[in-house]
Amino acid sequence: MTLAERALEFVKDGDVVGLGTGRAATAFVRALGIQVQAGLQIRAIPTSQVTTDLARELCIPLTTFEFVDTIDVAVDGADEVDPQLNLIKGYGGALVREKIVAVAAKQFVVLVGTEKLVSVLGGRGRLPVEVVPFGVATCLRRLRTLSCAPTARQTETGLFVSDNGNAIIDCGISSIARPAEFEQKILSIPGVVGTGLFVGMAHTVLVQDGETVQVRERNQLG
After folding, report:
1. What distance in Å separates the CA atoms of residue 52 and residue 29, rounded to the nearest whole number?
2. pTM for the complete prediction?
3. Measured between alpha carbons, how far is 61 from 43 in angstroms, rounded to an integer?
4. Catalytic residue among 80, 98, 130, 183
5. 131 shares a domain with 109
6. Are residues 36 and 68 part of one domain?
7. Structural domain of residue 22, as residue ranges?
8. Which pLDDT score is estimated for 1?
9. Whether 56 contacts 83, CB under 8 Å
């Protein structure tokens, strides 16, 4: 069984579904599209323009927060998952919209392979932070005072721009002993819109381990 197939088990007829961004989320959206074409009745809120375009291509009905208050289940990937199911996300640049959808979801399901599991957040050495373009230079300076090694994300044509019209700063980090506290320090910097730290948000993490899928639940943590 694949992660996408297992994640479909969390979706019920009539649900509002949050659609993530990235490789794992894309596989889920494609699997969901097949179910919609077979008669599953859902509405979806995507977290990026890329996912929006894919959902439309697959004829998945879309909605927005103007028409719904909550999301029944949101499905997304992650770049790191620690033993407490805290996450780092945002390598794809959609972290702020992903966080809005995750917080609005009654159930937030995360899809990862074993390579994304870390003992402490920061193990892969990068934390994305979204900032308004006007504040890039000052945010870079202030992030350096937090023992980060920040760099503004670039593309072949210049500064990376998120779907929100903002820049992404990738912070070089090591282990983050207290992720909630660290996030608050970053959020206190004027110009920061959001961070890739998703602390206490994931309800369920599905881990692809060879041909099997492990299920890790927040409510089962000791």
Report:
1. 10
2. 0.95
3. 5
4. 98
5. no
6. yes
7. 3-116+199-212
8. 86
9. no
